[in-house]
Amino acid sequence: MATRNGRAGFVAFFAADMLSTLGTFVSMVALPWLVLLSTGSPAKMGTIALAEMGTFLLASVFAPPLADRLGLKLTSVASDAGSALSMGAIALTPHIGFLPLVALVAVTGGLRGVGDRAKTVLLAPMVKLAGFGMKRVMGAYASVVRVAQLVGASVGGLLVFWFGAQGAVAVDAGSFVVCGAVIAALVWPPPIEEKPADDEPKGGYLAAFREGAREASRDHVVLGLTMVIFGLNVLNQANNSVFVPLWIADVLHSAAAGGSVMSAYAIGSVLGSLVFTAFANRLPRHATVIVGALLGSVPRPLVLGISHNLVLVLVVTFVSGVAGAATNPTWGALVFERIPARFQNRVFGLLTAICAAGLPIGGLLAGALVAGFGLRGGIVSTAFLGGALILAALIWYQRATVRVEPVPEPAPA
To answer: What domains are defined for the chain?
Structure first.
């Protein structure tokens, strides 16, 4: 039953999580800039990004069994405290040296991976306590995250301009302190369902990890949509990191045009998330996902391969952003609905890593195909391969939704 305290706790949790997300995007600007200023090496900038993202993904996959034993709230607060200390150490030691800096950034990435997974799983009991509908909350969550993506880089740039790179890192450290304090003081989730005593794994960590992997592989509806998102990430990263910059350089010769293409997609994604949030309970879930994934994937890179018209590219990019906005919140809602609460932390970690694996693959695939076939040939061949992958995943997903009895969603307040 929804209560005033339940809704206040949900608002506090949501605000703290969004502050942490905003801080993440600020650090994406501040840390590479700090490395460039201190070393002058673009290669070392890439090393820092790899250190943070690599440990983030590893912790997302392998730390959840430990977090389940510790407790989700305590894990979230402890991760924020550790991240604040590691980022604070970076801010307070301007001449720390490159290798210690890599180590601190890697620690921060790992802690962020643990904490982000715990916060994701905490969302479901807080939504239930507040009496809200999960589909709408996931849509709102996706909207705010996309706004944070739009705003975070700009805020990070302003903070670097006003306070220097280390000042911006210090602000990020402060955001972890505030986030951890808010969750510790104001967020009191109900207990997660307990596992029957006679079904406890006997092998400790490894048994718990295998149990999570087994649970993640059982639900083909969730797995099918996970592979759809993997395919979308392949095409999105190919587009963002390779196709758009090369198309702008070869066709329009204007960096400002590249910013407008990226902005069109981001604005479309925010608008699509808002529309999905407003009408989530009225839209047919699976049809929305299938149509959205098809419109939000192949047309976006393909238009770069067949047209030199910036206006057409902006329109198609914007529509793709709107159409694809329903996929991620639907995936999150499905995991919460179909995976038992005691497994959600482990399952989210594993499936998130699968989705994220599409990002490096997309960049590598696009670069290799452009090198082999030229820009137009690389775009068309990548769109064909990515589209085939997404179509196969959608067929898997659609067949699974027909075979599996749907899990009823609690009625929204």
So the answer is: 4-186 (1.20.1250.20), 210-403 (1.20.1250.20)
